[in-house]
Amino acid sequence: MTDQPEVATAYQDEWGAVTHEVYQAAESLREQAESYARAALGAEADGRTLLAKAAATVTRALEDRHEPIASLEAYLFQTYKRMVLAEAEKERARARILAERAGDASQNGHDASAELDQYILIEQLRRRMNQRTRMVFDLLALGHTFEEIGSKLGKSSRAIRNNYYEQVARLKQEIG
């Protein structure tokens, strides 16, 4: 949320509507949220994205609740921390799965240094991906199909597939 213009009214982002009061609370938490993301994820950009997602989630919660939220900033930051911790857990699970695969390959007689080189290359490519492409990549690596991913995200599998391959082509072009 660092380089975004001031919002005077509610707005719509990719996760849903965000009210002005929730946006203001998110802006007041921005530095604290970025610091938390650096510590938990090692990436401020992912933290900013999760803060925007948390703002949309809290806006929906405000609409659904019958009683007011006592401290909007505290509620928003708790929601944000849960999202960051869930993302960190996904990262650990992904790393664990990749490490297990590398270990299995070395036990099966594959060259361990080639496996490590491949792991490093995949990790470098993954870091260059935007958050949505990274999420699709991770789900594909875990064995999900584009149809399952589309169903989970509420989008068509064709749209997910096309966007994913466009992003991969962009990365290939960047790398050369």
Descriptive account of the structure:
The chain has 176 residues and is mainly alpha-helical. 76% of the residues lie in helices and 3% in strands. The chain has helices at residues 20-40, 44-64, 72-107, 112-128, 131-141, 146-153, 157-175, and strands at 11-13, 16-18. A two-stranded antiparallel sheet has the order 1-2. Strand 1 and strand 2 form a beta hairpin. Helix 1 runs antiparallel to helix 2, helix 1 (20-40) packs parallel to helix 3 (72-107) and helix 2 (44-64) packs across helix 3 (72-107). The chain is globular, with a radius of gyration of 19 Å. The two termini are 31 Å apart.
List the helices and strands and how they pair.
Blueprint: E1 11-13, E2 16-18, H1 20-40, H2 44-64, H3 72-107, H4 112-128, H5 131-141, H6 146-153, H7 157-175
Helix pairs in contact: 1-2, 1-3, 2-3, 3-4, 6-7
Q: Extract low-pLDDT stretches.
A: none
Give the strand tally.
2
Strand order of the largest sheet: 1-2
Order of helices and strands: EEHHHHHHH
Mean pLDDT value = 80
Please outline what is shown here.
The chain is 76% helix and 3% strand.
